[in-house]
Write a structure and sequence with these properties.
globular; 14 helices; 421 residues
């Protein structure tokens, strides 16, 4: 009897653990996560009004999530991690670690599963709603792309935290008090959150916004470098012929340390007497590496470095005793990129433009002082094909609305965009 009693805690723990793997809970979490993720995948169809279906699906998903307990919350978070962020693992292909993709995806799923479990464990509908409202603030390693305000993007309703708060309040009323009254309040809340089309400012000159479609292994293949450079120069010449005042090429358009390539610098400076050139390339100074934007205009150039680096892509956000072994094992002892000291602006014909490179364009910090114009450059080939460009686009649209900024976005690996507030 004593022996059996000693094993009771272990048996109890095992039973509780097994309870989480009940098929009913897994299926419920799976369905809720699909409802909360459908708006991202519907965006692939690029159909007018399709986002409204994604919004209805997401609201239903929020309702079901708020109603359920911690077991369902764990599996909902698990599958949300899968459907929103599975593409993060695709970058492993270009480091010859493709076989680790399932492991990284599982790790992403577990991180979000346990985050949701921690909230669900509290069994308080109001705390759950607050979490859903501010989910982007709970950012693993600084990665804050889980933002439920995105469900309103491309719909007739204001994409803001206030609209999301109204929806969550209505859902709580429907769950705790009266379902019909909650639905009526929800409809009224959406009606008062109608987003009236607003005028926006655009740059007062013609700009050629370039899309390219180079695979990630092509970009850094030494055998294709000269071909890529020639293609870029041809693109610039075409923009000159079209009479554009400026041409924007994507992140890593020139796959080299451009500030150390004197012949190419000279050629670009020469062309800049006819057109302003904005392009991405690497930079190096004081033995530090930078992901940079180069601006050529009227025979001069400046280099503006990235401020906010991609976690585990451009920097390892961990202490050195963990970071160094990771860099040695996965990145051939490469060092992290260095970052700029602050946001960077430049001017073309007296018009101030905020510089942004890929990931940082989705961060509020880069919209300091609410710039009127931003030119962002991205290389989405790391994650192609996937829903990453669709999620990135929705985040940029949210930033544009919040900060009343017109964003010109040049991309490799997906279509470039003009994004208006």
């Amino acid at each position: 009897m004593k022996l059996a009693l000693n094993f009771l805690p272990c048996g109890s723990f095992k039973k509780k653990l097994v309870d989480y793997f009940t098929l009913k809970f897994i299926i419920k979490g799976f369905i809720i996560s699909i409802l909360l993720s459908l708006f991202i995948f519907l965006d692939l169809l690029n159909l007018k009004y399709i986002a409204n279906l994604g919004l209805i699906s997401a609201i239903l998903g929020l309702y079901l999530l708020l109603k359920n307990d911690r077991k369902i919350w764990f599996w909902s978070g698990f599958f949300i991690g899968l459907f929103w962020f599975y593409w993060i693992s695709f970058s492993l292909i270009y480091y010859n670690f493709s076989y680790l993709i399932p492991i990284e995806i599982l790790g992403i799923c577990l991180i979000y599963g346990f985050i949701f479990l921690a909230i669900g464990w509290l069994e308080n509908i109001y705390i759950k709603a607050i979490f859903l409202l501010f989910a982007n603030l709970i950012a693993p390693f600084g990665f804050d792309w889980l933002n439920f305000q995105l469900i309103f993007i491309d719909t007739p309703f204001i994409p803001s935290i206030y609209t999301l708060a109204l929806v969550l309040i209505c859902l709580i009323i429907a769950i705790k008090f009266n379902g019909y009254f909650g639905v009526i309040l929800l409809i009224c809340s959406l009606m008062i959150s109608y987003n009236k089309p607003a005028k926006y400012e655009s740059l007062p000159f013609d700009i050629s916004l370039i899309s390219t479609d180079l695979s990630q292994d092509q970009i850094w293949d030494r055998n294709t470098k000269d071909k890529i450079i020639k293609s870029n120069l041809d693109i610039i010449d075409l923009a000159i012929q079209d009479g554009s005042r400026a041409v924007v090429l994507p992140e890593s358009a020139f796959p080299l340390f451009l500030n150390k390539s004197q012949i190419l610098l000279s050629e670009l400076k020469q062309k800049s007497h006819q057109i302003a050139i904005i392009a991405g390339a690497l930079g190096v100074s004081d033995n530090k590496l930078y992901n940079s934007t180069y601006i050529f205009d009227k025979g001069e150039f400046q280099r503006l470095d990235k401020l906010i680096l991609v976690p585990f892509g451009e920097e390892i956000p961990l202490p050195n005793f963990i970071k160094n072994p990771i860099n040695t094992l996965f990145f051939g002892s490469a060092v992290d990129y260095s970052k700029a000291n602050g946001v960077s602006d430049y001017e073309i014909d007296g018009v101030k433009i905020r510089n942004a490179i890929c990931y940082e364009a989705t961060k509020d910090e880069l919209f300091k002082n609410n710039p009127k114009f931003m030119i962002a450059i991205s290389n989405n080939a790391w994650f192609s094909p996937s829903t990453q460009p669709n999620l990135q686009s929705k985040l940029l649209k949210l930033m544009a609305f919040k900060h009343k900024t017109t964003i010109y976005h040049s991309i490799n690996g997906s279509l470039s965009q003009l994004i208006t507030p």
